[in-house]
């Protein structure tokens, strides 16, 4: 019972603090971070529901970004376009 009494105020405070984060306070993630999360999520979804693979990957990436207080993506196309920025900038540096 004593543990609950100690944990409860901490939980309440952390919930209150988390709810204070607005979309204006969120920063944009780096392309490298998003690519790393995307690759991880693709590995996690291998061999699973392939009909909803894009949707599941988007949810996975957005979940990680939300936890880290970064802005999220509305669509899978937006996500992949963001990641492709890295490839395009790398290709430009080669020439």
Write a brief caption for the model.
By secondary structure, the chain is mainly alpha-helical. The chain has one domain.
Mean pLDDT: 80
* Cα-to-Cα separation, first versus last residue: 66 Å
Q: In terms of per-residue confidence, which ranges show pLDDT below 50 for 5 or more consecutive residues?
A: none
Please report the number of helical segments: 4
Q: Helicity range of the residues?
A: 55-70%
Tally of individual domains: 1
Provide the descriptors you would attach to this structure in a database record.
95 residues; single chain; 4 helices; 69% helix
Give the arrangement of secondary structure elements.
Elements: H1 2-19, H2 31-44, H3 53-67, H4 76-94
Helix pairs in contact: 2-3, 2-4
Provide an overview of this structure.
The protein has 95 residues and is mainly α. It has one domain. Helix content is 69%, strand content 0%. It contains 4 helices and no strands. Helix 2 packs across helix 3 and helix 2 crosses helix 4. The longest helix is centred in the C-terminal third of the chain and has 19 residues. It starts with a helix and ends with a helix.
């Amino acid at each position: 019972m004593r543990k609950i009494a100690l944990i409860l105020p901490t939980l309440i405070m952390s919930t209150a603090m988390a709810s204070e984060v607005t979309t204006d306070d969120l920063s944009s993630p780096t392309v490298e971070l998003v690519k790393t999360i995307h690759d991880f999520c693709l590995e996690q979804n291998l061999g699973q529901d392939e009909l909803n693979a894009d949707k599941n990957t988007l949810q996975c990436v957005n979940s990680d970004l939300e936890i880290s207080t970064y802005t999220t993506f509305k669509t899978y196309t937006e996500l992949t376009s963001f990641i492709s920025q890295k490839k395009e900038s790398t290709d430009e540096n080669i020439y």
